Amino acid sequence: MEILATFARWSQLVANLVLFGSCIYLAVTGARCELFSNAWVKRLEKIFPVLAVVILVGLVGVLATTTGKATGIESNAWKLTAWVDIVRHTNMGHMWALRAIFAVFLLAAVLFIYLKKERVRWHYTLGAITASLPLIASAMISHAGADEKFLVYVPVYAIHILVAGAWFGALPAFLLIVFDRHNCDAKGLQLLLNIESLKKFSFIALPVMVAIVLTGVVLTDRMVENDYHALISSTYGWSLVIKVTLLVVILFIANQARSKWLPSFAQVCEVIKESVNKEDNESKNDKRIFAKWKQDNQTQVDLVDEKISQEDGVSKLRKWVRIEFILALFLVLFATILSNSVPAKHAKVESWPYSFRFTYDGTIGAGSWKDPTVQFLLGLGVALLIAAILLFWLGKKRKWNLVKKVILPSVLVLGSLAAILPQFAVDAYPETYRDTPVPFDAISISNGSVLFSEFCSSCHGPQGKGNGILAKTLSKVPADLLTEPHTARHTAGDFFHWLGYGIKGTPMPGFESSMSEEDRWDTVNYIHAMSRGYQARLLSAQIVPEKPSMVPPVFQFITFAGTSGTLKDYRKKSNVLLVFFRWPNSIERLKKLNENLDNLKNMNTFVLAVPLNGYSEGAVTKLAANNPIEVVKEGWFEIKNSYSLYRRTLEYPDILGAGEIPDHMEFLVDRFGYLRARWIPSLDKSGWDDINILVSQILQLNQEKEILPPPGDHVH
After folding, report:
1. Is 337 in contact with 143 (CB distance < 8 Å)?
2. Residue 426: which H helix or E strand, with range?
3. H-state helical runs in 421-568
4. β-strand 425-427 against 556-559: which pairing, if any?
5. Which of 56, 171, 255, 504 is buried most deeply by CB count within 10 Å?
6. What is the pLDDT of residues 328-363, one digit of tens each?
7. pTM summary value
8. Which residue, among 341, 325, 144, 147, has the nearest Cα to 240 in the 3D structure?
């Protein structure tokens, strides 16, 4: 079924691109209507109706296979009623119907052109416009159409596929002209028009290719984002790599054709022009023009490059343009596979197939660039790369043979890579890029704190500082998981692997038999929370304008008033002021917040109080009766355990011993889900004890627009 679906998508896309590109070619190059009387134009037009029918048949195949896949019942692929249901009740079906309608319009336009006896330029412009409609509509069901910023990326995708069609669709016309030269030899004027059309299109081919590359880079960056590892470990990635490789080869062939073989093919163009201009003043007879051209042709042979004869150039042009078209067909095939694969940024790499990976943070970013050996190898690699570029330039300038011009620089490039890449390589494991199934939330972090205390604190210390009671007895000092940025240099999957199987060459044991997979992911989340908590010492009672970066743990809660929800519920709705209090120490602060509660609500800020310790039922009743602030009844313990990790300040880093939780803390989370400010009365010299200062911070947050997308639910 999947093979049939791919073939249906590919065939209709190829037909659509060829129709669009062919019409573009004829509209751009057909300044003189005499061009349209050439035999190759008539042959090209004969396939137009066939291509239009292929588009419609291909769309039917797409609908059939999509119906079978969407319903989960393969037999539905052949049921008309199932097709109708998909078209009527799904967005994909609606877009399919729109594409089908556009395809019918295209068939009508093609038949109109085909049945016309006399051709004019606007006929092909009409064909190009109608052929563009199904392509533009397909952008709405692409990955770009599913993106949250589809208003930006759908137009980029539409431009990408249209300029790709302008290039790819013109190749059949190019081929027909090249292979039609013999038939045109008897008509010098037709040959002249053909050559002029090739030159015209060759002139616009460069900006078309630039547009293809630029729009492709924009779309790829969006679909990959930071998950470049998926380029060599997913269907999307391999399809993209093959597509780019084919494009590079095609660009090389196109450059050779444009700079070498096309001039050889068109060598007589200037002679024809001269003859035409001279004879036009005396006679309009094409036979005399051609006779004059044929007579003078022998005298102009010396204009040809001495190393490439005319026939040799024509032969190479025919051969390589054919190859270019075949490669382009494969490129469209892999583009089709690419468009129907999970984007790299969403691809799940459950088992990384290599024992290494490349990362800046793991090597150079870790300070290894200070190592003299690393410096030498990096310098050597850069020197070899520069030498390769200079050697290639020199070879091209002096017209060296292939061995000197290409192979030697290629050897130097490989040597450069061999010297540079290992400096960016670190160990990797099957789980390295595995996505954590457990969200980064308060429950997971709280569970992880218990597991870390049981299995890890004896070596790494109660706060992960690497100073546990057994640390001095070990052959290698345990890693400092608190103050060193290990979570930035390693993936969550790395930590998951180490927790299960240990680290070779170190005293770190594995706990696969003692900890379940979920336990290990909880511990990974706790390690990340520890690291983020240490980075949170940069927070203060003053927000840094336009600089959201700190991601707080999400949580669920139920209050004494019966309100239930999650922190994520308030995203894009309101700010959240989290008040962590200890009873009865915080009673005065709670009273002050109660007095200003209405004002805070009017400023689009939800206040949620979380106890830092348990208290009696009587105290709860009294608190609820005297304070309208929502107080968490269920979930407070997990929320307290996770947010207490964010208690540190620059002046009081609190990294020794078991740590100390302040009696009162307040955190301000903006309406986009980022932790922006924090006030701890016992540690901060000034802050929100003056409500006006808190109000000013909230007003500043309310003036900001969305800067970053909402934080992800999982660590990476």
Report:
1. no
2. strand 425-427
3. 442-455, 457-460, 486-489, 492-501, 517-535
4. unpaired
5. 171
6. 999 999 999 988 888 888 888 888 988 988 887 766
7. 0.77
8. 341
